[in-house]
Structures are given as C-alpha cells and as structure tokens.
C-alpha cells in the first residue's frame, strides 16, 4: 500500500453535516450522474458484492467482500462490510474504513470528517464520512479514497 494518499486540499467550504446518528451530509451533493459513476465503479471492484448496509440508513448500499475473499478483518465495520454509500437525500456521501493515517489525511485535507462514533470515542480513528463528489475532478479523488478502503480490506492495490 502506498504510504500516503497525497490528497489535494478540497476547494470551498465544508458541507453541512449532522453530528448525531445517522451521520449524514446535508449540503453540496454531487449530481446523480457523478454519484452513479462512483457507485458503478465501486461495485465493479473484484471480490466486492453490493448489499444492504447492516449499519447505515435504509437504502444505503454496502461494499461487502465475497465470502471466499482473503480479507483484513480490521478493515470492516460489521461482518465483511468496509464501506457504504448513502442514498438520497444524502446523495453519494459514504462511510469508509481506512487505516488511521489515511483517515487523518482525509479529514485534514477537507474530503471528509470522522464518524460521530469516533468523535464520541466509541470507534477508533479510521471510520470516516467521505463527502459526495461534486464534479469529475472530485470523483477521481473520491475514487482514490474509496480505493484505499478497498486496499485496506483486501491488502491488494488497485488502479482508480
């Protein structure tokens, strides 16, 4: 795995979010087309099944590793779920599990924030909400973050 995501700073103000449960993005969502591209890419990764999330709101689509896939179990939120994409009205934001250093970089560079449970001390640093991509340039960056979560879950590098 690469040592750093090397993310650029996210442009513009941080979106409004909720800080309870469910933890959601309220403003600055990407268009349906951008979010659909992200979702299609996410569920085309080798060994990933699309399922109902076991820990998110109804309609959230979870990225779950196939039962037969070799996995890093520290990378899972529950079962074999390592990420999930939120449905409308929170269109395209997602929760992902990342290595600690990557989670800190995502937050520092403005691409997401720690999950409410991390802020409450009930989960270790690594579970972050990544904001919805607003355009094609942001989509490429969000795919790199989501790809890192996949690499964490599988131990395999991928090309975004």
UniProtKB/TrEMBL annotation:
Region Disordered, annotated ranges: 1-25
Luciferase domain boundaries: 79-146
Database matches in PANTHER family: AMINO ACID PERMEASE_ SLC12A DOMAIN-CONTAINING PROTEIN
Identification of the protein by name: Luciferase domain-containing protein
């Amino acid at each position: 795995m690469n040592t750093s995501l090397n993310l650029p700073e996210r442009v513009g103000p941080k979106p409004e979010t909720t800080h309870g449960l469910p933890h959601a993005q309220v403003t600055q969502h990407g268009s349906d087309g951008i979010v659909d591209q992200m979702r299609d890419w996410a569920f085309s990764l080798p060994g990933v099944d699309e399922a109902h999330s076991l820990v998110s709101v109804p309609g959230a689509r979870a990225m779950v590793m196939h039962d037969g896939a070799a996995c890093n179990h520290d990378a899972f939120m529950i079962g074999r779920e390592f990420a999930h994409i939120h449905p409308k009205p929170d269109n395209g934001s997602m929760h992902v599990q990342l290595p600690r250093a990557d989670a800190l970089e995502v937050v520092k560079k403005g691409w997401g924030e720690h999950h409410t449970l991390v802020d409450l001390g009930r989960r270790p640093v690594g579970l972050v909400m990544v904001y919805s991509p607003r355009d094609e340039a942001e989509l490429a960056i969000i795919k790199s973050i989501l790809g890192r979560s996949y690499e964490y879950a599988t131990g395999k590098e991928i090309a975004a």
